Amino acid sequence: MKSIIAIAAILVAGGVGYAMWPAAPQTAASDTVVSMEHEALADVLLPETLSQNAQIGQLGFEAKCAACHGVNAAGQDGVAPPLVHIIYEPSHHGDEAFQRAVALGVQAHHWPFGDMPPVEGITRGDVTMIVAYIRELQRANVIN
Ligand code: HEC
User: Are 39 and 76 a contacting pair, CB within 8 Å?
Assistant: First the structure.
């Protein structure tokens, strides 16, 4: 719990810092807003509501995982796979597989994107919340 609050604080501080940082000159021609540089690999339907644990998990995911696994865990072409994907259904990648991936990293085996390094600064409790978030996204996309 404590570390998620720290993450939230970093997100807020980061947001404020970003807002205060003088914006780079905009090119007049660019009128599209791109949040991630790489194309999403899955069309993720969002559930209407997230449980409280999943909302906490979403913060953790956005702080620690989304840079690779993309917004809404939709993956990013050339970077990391979508976690809202049949490969990661609970019976194939149980919750413990998520804990192991985060603690120990992952050797590339399903995708051509290279290894996932261990993720620093995150507790098992944080990962439990992140898994709650991913499972709710999966269920909304009929991955059970
Ligand atoms: C530096 C990029 C990067 C970050 C950050 C990252 N991942 Fe990954 N992750 C990957 C890649 C690449 C793979 C695919 C490996 C493969 O080929 O199977 C992967 C695979 C996984 C898998 C599948 C593990 C398995 O057993 O096959 C899980 C679960 C996972 N990531 C969860 C997470 C979570 C949760 C976070 C955040 C706490 C996270 N990842 C952060 C790059 C990343």
Answer: yes
Backbone angles phi, psi at 51, to 5 degrees: -65, 165
Query: How far, in Å, CA of 65 to CA of 51, rounded?
Result: 19
Q: What is the pLDDT of residues 56-93, one digit of tens each?
A: 999 999 999 999 999 999 999 999 999 999 999 999 99
Q: Supply the pLDDT for residue 36.
A: 76
How far apart, in Å, are the Cα atoms of 5 and each of 13, 102, 130?
12, 19, 14
Ligand 1 pocket: which of 62, 106, 127, 129 to mutate (most atoms within 8 A of CB): 106
Ligand 1: lining residues by beta carbon, under 6 Å = 64-65, 67-69, 80-81, 93, 97-98, 101-102, 106, 108-111, 113-114, 116-117, 119, 122, 130
The Cα 58–Cα 7 span in angstroms is 11
Nearest to 115 by CA among 105, 127, 102: 105
What's the distance, CA 80 to chain centroid? 10
Type of residue at 122? I
